[in-house]
Every structure is written in structure tokens, then in C-alpha cells.
UniProtKB/TrEMBL annotation:
Organism: Pseudoclavibacter chungangensis
InterPro entries with a match to the protein in the record: Anthracycline_SecMetBiosynth, Glyas_Bleomycin-R_OHBP_Dase, Glyas_Fos-R_dOase_dom, Glyoxalase_6, VOC_core
Domain of life: Bacteria
VOC domain ranges (all copies): 11-122, 136-253
Pfam families given in the database record: Glyoxalase, Glyoxalase_6
Record-given protein name: VOC family protein
Length: 255
């Protein structure tokens, strides 16, 4: 579990879902994880909560952009400087830094390999209320077609350091840690493992006390299993797609 007040630059401090059918998405995650939804600081933006803690956002996809996907937000206390550094180092800008009153400020861009992410400078809105419990965000990974480039980018933009966890054919994995030694997310090297033209992306994991049961429940609710439950070096996981097409993962965690 992570205390949100301890989150530092470069750590995942928020996530939200862009949906082509927000009502359907809201119903799915409410049933699967026991989330409640309430109005957020922007008209049309919904906030998912559980046990009174904020966990994720939900927003309708823009017309003409039928993409259902989860987006991670990396904390950037000096938002403008971080944004400029990221673009100077080859990041692609999609939305310039914008303040939402005194709630927060953010921007959207992609790393040099095409993985889209957002930056968030917290204000009165502090971001994630808790992680690492069943039904809560639990882990985050950058799945990169050029892991060396992605790692170097995040090291230089956020001052993170890298630990190589595995370097074997078919499984090359690293973790990124902040200046205080806290692991903040993982990096999966997709080079040679995916078809040409596959893009880099972020993967979100939600905690599950019983992965098999939650996979079955997700399917009953209209989701689809992409990867059935399997044991990995990081625990038992599964990959699913929600009824609107957004991919997400389950990870076994203790209650």
C-alpha cells in the first residue's frame, strides 16, 4: 500500500479511463470492483471512489476519437519544466500544460516510442487515495517496443534510476525507482515479441483477492479475457478487455 501524500515526481499519481460509452464503463467497473462514481472538477468528468478514497477518473472519448483506454498520470511538481524537458528529449506533445482551477494542472504527451501518458501537478486534488488493495490500482507498467529509449527518457525527464530484473529471451523486464529508492513502475521490453507496427503503451493493474473469480465476474459483466490467470515472477495476473474495449490487468494482492 502507498500513502498518496508520499508520492514524488515520476510516480503514478492518477489514472483515468477514456470511454466511448461512459455509462456502460461505469456500470462495469462499479459491479466488478465495487466502485462508486461522483462528479469531478470538470463537467462530464467522473471520479471513482471506494471506501471514501478516490481511485480513478472516467471521461467520454472525443467525437471522432473512438479509443477506449486507460491513461496514467506521472507526478510533476514543476509541470512546465517537466513538460519542456520531455518534449526537448523527443516526447510528442498532445496537450500543453493546463490548470483546472486550484484542483490540479496537467498535460498529455507520448514518450519517443509512442507510449501516451499524462503529467499531473497536484493542487487541492491530490490524486490516488490508495493503491495495492483488492479493487484498487495495484501496479503500472510501460510496455515498450524500444525499452532502452523509454528507460533513458524517463531517467532524464524524472531523475529515475533503473534496475534490470530479468534479461532472458522472451522476458526482459526492468523497474524504475525514484531518488529515495522506491520502485515506481515496471518496464517490459517488447522488442522482437510483438508484430511490426505494434505501439508502446502503458498497462494498469488492479488488485484482486481472487483472480480467477474476478476474471469470471468480468466476463459475466461483458468483458473478455485476453490472458487467462497465470503465475508470473510478480504474482498471479490476468489480462482483460472491458465491454468497451479498454485493456486492463488483474494482480493477486492480499486483502
Amino acid at each position: 500500500m502507498t500513502d498518496p501524500g508520499s508520492l514524488r515526481t515520476g510516480e503514478v499519481t492518477w489514472l483515468d479511463l477514456t470511454s466511448t460509452d461512459p455509462q456502460r464503463s461505469e456500470a462495469f467497473y462499479a459491479e466488478l470492483f465495487g466502485w462508486r462514481f461522483e462528479s469531478g472538477p470538470i463537467d462530464g468528468y467522473r471520479i471513482a471512489t471506494r471506501d471514501g478514497l478516490v481511485l480513478a477518473g472516467l471521461v467520454a472519448a472525443e467525437p471522432g476519437d473512438p479509443l477506449d483506454a486507460w491513461t496514467v498520470y506521472l507526478r510533476a511538481d514543476d509541470l512546465v519544466r517537466t513538460y519542456r524537458t520531455a518534449t526537448d528529449l523527443g516526447g510528442t506533445p498532445y496537450a500543453a500544460p493546463t490548470a483546472i482551477g486550484d484542483h490540479a494542472a496537467g498535460s498529455v504527451l507520448a514518450d519517443p516510442t509512442g507510449a501516451v501518458f499524462a503529467l499531473l501537478r497536484p493542487g487541492t486534488f491530490r490524486g490516488l487515495g490508495e493503491v495495492g488493495l483488492p479493487g484498487y490500482p495495484a501496479w503500472f507498467e510501460l510496455h515498450s517496443t524500444d525499452a532502452t529509449t523509454s528507460i533513458r527518457f524517463h531517467e532524464r525527464v524524472f531523475g529515475l534510476e533503473t534496475d534490470a530484473v530479468a534479461d532472458e529471451p522472451g522476458f526482459r523486464y526492468s523497474t524504475m525507482r525514484d531518488a529515495e529508492g522506491e520502485t515506481v513502475f515496471g518496464v517490459v521490453d517488447l522488442e522482437g515479441l510483438v508484430p511490426a507496427g505494434t505501439g508502446s503503451s502503458w498497462a494498469v493493474y488492479f488488485g484482486s483477492a481472487d483472480v480467477e473469480a474476478d476474471v469470471a465476474r468480468a466476463i459475466d459483466l461483458g468483458g473478455r479475457a485476453v490472458l487467462e490467470p497465470v503465475d508470473t515472477p510478480h504474482g498471479r495476473v490476468a489480462t482483460l478487455v472491458d465491454p468497451c474495449g479498454a485493456a486492463f490487468n488483474l494482480m493477486r494482492v492480499d486483502e
